[in-house]
Design brief:
The complex is a heterodimer of chains A (211) and B (356). Chain A is mainly alpha-helical. Chain A has ten helices and no strands. In chain A, helix 1 runs antiparallel to helix 2. The longest helix of chain B is centred in the N-terminal third of the chain and has 34 residues. Chain B folds into two domains: 254 residues, no CATH class; 38 residues, no CATH class. Chain B has 13 helices and no strands. The chains are: A mainly alpha (211), B mainly alpha (356). The interface between A and B is medium-sized, with 21 and 30 residues.
């Protein structure tokens, strides 16, 4: 069974890398987005393999259910021919090279034990969480560390216990961002057609003399 | 052997849902025809009961037409994805105390994830047809489904707060003494309305408004792929009525076919609403979601949480399910430790201890 899991892990990660590659090199923006969606699905499958069900489901609900759909919306409403014209072969080659570089960098980084580089004891404030060395991203290790108790309960403990104030701050920052977007697009001079039911109902009937 | 049993179970669930869909279409046509004082389908089989099968056969035998300028791969993937996802969602539905295909602690989140993914089938179908009608239908459907998913999620949170678990069987078992219909009465209605919008049904069927968009996102589809969209839509409606009966009407609690009865009543409501109400306008739909349902459910959620805290009625963490009981003892020794067992009848008894 362990062999089977390793095989699945290999398959999903290869799929993930290929999908990411397609995302940045595709000529057609919609194809790129489809690849991005595929990449997210594969990432979710990787989370499931690590038995982090909750995080994986959040990935699907938040990224695929909201963010990618909005991307897809905006891309589909574009005039695609103009977008395609700006994507030249050299541009895509550059993308590909940057991708290779970043992948190489990360593969080197994860070879070392990051705990030795970053001193974890200084940021080890949480008593329940972060006890295990999270930076050692060996997938069998992650498996044994986080899946034993319920990951949902852990997340709740950390978010609403230790980091409650930060959570509220993040919420305020998001609210400010949302208000900013509303202010940017809201033009009071814009004559939009609105229906006021009360106005319609309370209107007095004017009977015109006919014929 | 294990895989064989699994396949048979999966087939049982799928065939069950497919049969329900087939007879649901006849039910819908019959009810609408009686409401409009005509007879409806009555020629194929006794009382027209085999009409759906003959329709299905006709559609399957016909030739599939691909539009000349369509993106054929996405054109095929779209309806297939919608179909598969709408039937996958049935895997986490508990039909009885032990009759669940996949019993996970997060089954409600699974349902939300499936409904989030099934959007892409519509978008793919609408975009790849390369037709303005299909495209606008898809865009409308997705905008509507995204908006109503928010309110749907907020309604679910209130229910989950009362039951303390995301597992559907757990939510049902926590209603042993009291259906959530009584404490959450307004939420029941709002959930039903959101379900209508979520499944793109009348009076919110802007995705396929015939007077404006011909047939919406499935304008260019014919034969097999149209059938896939059709089956997915009806399966989603039945899924929604099942979900409502699980969340608010006590699900499978009671006599043996009580879940079927509740589902049947709610499915009838889906049809009656279609026959009785005209289509709204698009901005009315959006206003109703963002300016009424969303603030109301948010306020209701705050009220629920405050009441639970004030009356000291918070449910035990993770509800009546014992799969995490070992974890309680790990975090806090004061929790009551139940023996780890997966058989649900025992849990039923334990949930009575919690909720009596």
């Amino acid at each position: 069974m362990a062999f089977f899991e390793d095989l699945l892990f290999l398959g999903f990660s290869v799929n993930l890398i290929l999908a990411c590659l397609l995302t940045i090199t595709a000529y057609n923006a919609v194809t790129a987005l489809m690849a991005l969606i595929f990449a997210f699905v594969n990432a979710t499958c990787l989370f499931f393999l690590m038995e982090l069900e909750f995080v994986g489901l959040l990935f699907i609900i938040v990224y695929l259910g909201a963010i990618c759909v909005l991307f897809l919306f905006s891309v589909m409403l574009f005039n695609l021919k103009e977008v395609v014209r700006t994507k030249t072969t050299s541009f895509i080659l550059l993308n590909f090279l940057i991708f290779l570089g970043i992948t190489f960098l990360f593969s080197i980084l994860f070879q070392f034990n990051l705990e030795e580089i970053i001193d974890l004891s200084s940021i080890n404030s949480s008593k329940v969480f972060l006890k295990p060395n999270l930076f050692e991203l060996n997938h069998s290790n992650m498996n044994s560390v986080i899946s034993t108790p319920n990951s949902l309960y852990f997340l709740g403990q950390v978010l609403y216990g230790e980091y409650l104030l930060y959570l509220i701050l993040v919420g305020v920052v998001l609210l400010v961002a949302m208000l900013g977007a509303v202010v940017l697009i809201n033009n009071p001079k814009d004559q939009t057609q609105m229906q006021y039911q009360l106005h319609q109902i309370s209107r007095t009937i004017q009977i015109t003399k006919g014929k | 052997m294990f895989i064989l049993v699994y396949i048979i179970k999966a087939l049982l669930v799928t065939v069950y849902v497919l049969l329900m869909v087939a007879f649901y279409t006849i039910l819908e046509r019959k009810i609408i025809s009686y409401m409009q004082r005509r007879r409806g389908p009555n020629l194929v089989g006794p009382f027209g009961l085999l009409q759906a099968i003959s329709d299905g056969l006709k559609l399957l035998v016909k030739k599939t037409i691909y539009p000349q300028s369509a993106n054929v791969l996405i054109f095929i993937v779209g309806p297939t994805m919608t179909f598969v996802l709408s039937y996958l969602a049935w895997s986490v539905i508990p039909f009885d105390a032990e009759a669940v295909f996949v019993d996970t602690p997060l089954s409600l989140l699974y349902l939300l994830a499936f409904s989030a993914l099934s959007l892409y089938g519509l978008v793919m179908g609408g975009w790849s047809s390369n037709s303005k009608y299909a495209f606008f239908g898809a865009i409308r459907a997705v905008a509507q489904m995204i908006s109503y998913e928010v309110s749907l999620g907020l309604i679910l949170i209130s229910v989950v707060c009362c039951s303390g678990t995301l597992n559907l069987s757990g939510i049902v078992l926590s209603q042993v003494n009291n259906w959530y219909l009584l404490p959450h009465f307004p939420l029941f209605f709002l959930f039903f309305i959101s379900a209508l919008a979520e499944t793109n049904r009348h009076p919110f069927d802007f995705a396929e408004a015939e007077s404006e968009l011909v047939s919406g996102y499935n304008t260019e589809y014919s034969a097999l792929f149209f059938v896939l969209f059709f089956l997915a839509e009806y399966a989603n409606m039945i899924l929604m009525s099942t979900l409502i009966s699980l969340l608010f009407l006590g699900g499978f609690l009671g006599f043996s076919w009580s879940l079927s009865l509740k589902m049947f009543v709610l499915m009838n409501f889906f049809v009656i609403v279609r026959a009785a109400y005209p289509r709204l306008r698009y901005d009315q739909l959006m206003q109703f979601c963002w300016k009424f349902i969303l603030p109301f459910t948010l306020a209701w959620f705050v009220l629920t949480v405050c009441l639970l805290k004030l009356l000291d009625a918070c449910p035990p963490l993770n509800g009546p399910l014992t799969s995490f009981v070992a974890f309680y003892s790990y975090i806090d020794k004061n929790f009551e430790i139940l023996e780890l067992s997966t058989s649900l009848p025992k849990l039923w008894l334990s949930s009575k201890i919690y909720f009596s």
